[in-house]
Amino acid sequence: MEIRAEQVGKKYRKEWIFRRVALTLTAGSSYTFVGPNGSGKSTLLQLLAGSLPLTEGQLSYRQQDTVIEPDNWFRHVNIAAPYLELVEELSLDELLTFHQTFKPFKAGFTPEIVAEQLLLGHARHKEIKYFSSGMKQRVKLGLAFFSEAPIVILDEPTSNLDRQGVAWYQEQVRQLIKPAVSIAGHSAQLLLIGSNQPEEYDFCPNVLNMTQWK
Ligand SMILES: Nc1ncnc2c1ncn2[C@@H]1O[C@H](COP(=O)(O)OP(=O)(O)OP(=O)(O)O)[C@@H](O)[C@H]1O
């Protein structure tokens, strides 16, 4: 799996947020976008996820030599971000069951196992609206970690997490990017992070500063 960005730029009203982004992002590796507040990390991640239009340039998703149509990109991406909301009226069990109808969990994961992995086994029957902000953040991350998709995008992944939550994130993200072993159905992941917290990406070999595209 690969995402290619060619001369990608984004403008809001008359202001260019970034220009001439040229990247090849390849599964089996991870990439972190860093930069000051407002430098465009979230915007670029949304472009790469296919959820925002570009102003200029081209983006493509490729699997081996096959180009994937933009209408199908969402099937290949799990994204956890502060601006994406959970369905607050559902209990955790209901949310996980609903979620897997359109984005199945990885082999061996059931809603019950996912809840345990989130350290939220005790809260399976509680409505999401009664979760603390840190509990909600773990749910968002868990949906990204445990659903089947080759691309995982995490924007500000440890926001609202306490120290135990940060340790949990660090363990899960390392599991995610472990080199793929040759188990049928297990493919290498492409992990993209937007961050300003070194503890969120200290394992990541590719740290890209947004200021280079100003
Ligand atoms: N819908 C929008 N309309 C107009 N301007 C926008 C819109 N969304 C973002 N921007 C602007 O784009 C710039 C980049 O914002 P973005 O949220 O991508 O930055 P960021 O690097 O993720 O910031 P932070 O570190 O604060 O999360 C900011 O100047 C922001 O005001």
From TrEMBL:
Q: Name one GO molecular function term.
A: ATP binding
Give UniProt keywords alphabetically: ATP-binding, Nucleotide-binding, Transport
Is Transport tagged as a keyword? yes
Q: Which InterPro entries match?
A: AAA+_ATPase, ABC_transporter-like_ATP-bd, ABC_transporter-like_CS, ABC_Transporter_VariousFunc, P-loop_NTPase
Q: Where is the ABC transporter domain?
A: 3-213
Enumerate the Pfam families for this protein: ABC_tran (PF00005)
What SUPFAM superfamilies is this protein classified in? Answer: P-loop containing nucleoside triphosphate hydrolases
**Do you know which PANTHER family this protein is assigned to?**
ABC TRANSPORTER ATP-BINDING PROTEIN ALBC-RELATED
State what protein this is by name.
Answer: ABC transporter ATP-binding protein
| Protein's organism | Spirosoma agri
